[in-house]
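Section 5.1 Outputs to date
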Amino acid sequence: MIQVRVTGKCSRISKRQVREAVSFYSSLIISRRLLNYLTVRVEFKNLWKTDKCTGTCCPEYDEPRPRDFIVEVNSEMSKKKILETLAHELVHMKQFAYGELKHYLKIPKTRFLDELFDNEREVQSDENYWFSPWEIESWGRQPGMYVLYKQYLFDKDNK
């Protein structure tokens, strides 16, 4: 099972709920075998101050198929938005873990499914963000993952 650590402060959701959501979401999109080797640190911070975003996901180390990840989540959002953001960022974690997505550190390029994208020209603008294939997958999976999680919680509470 995936190892989850939660750091930072957030009054809208408990650490237990975050660990449960991360475990649930990751089990939807990552094989059980691979989950046994993954660790994720979920960090709550006010990302509006620094990055003007709801969340980020990046490998902790620069490896071809990383196993350790940091997911940052904006602590100033509602519980629903936090859960949706976790789903979105965990799709990116899946993309990194399977070697589908790689952000190069020394050159401003991103590789997704063997296609190379120029970050300065093709990714950085708001318009291009929405058409990046890794974001299309993440935004596409996010709503369904959230709905399935809410159904899981409803079923668990009504046993």
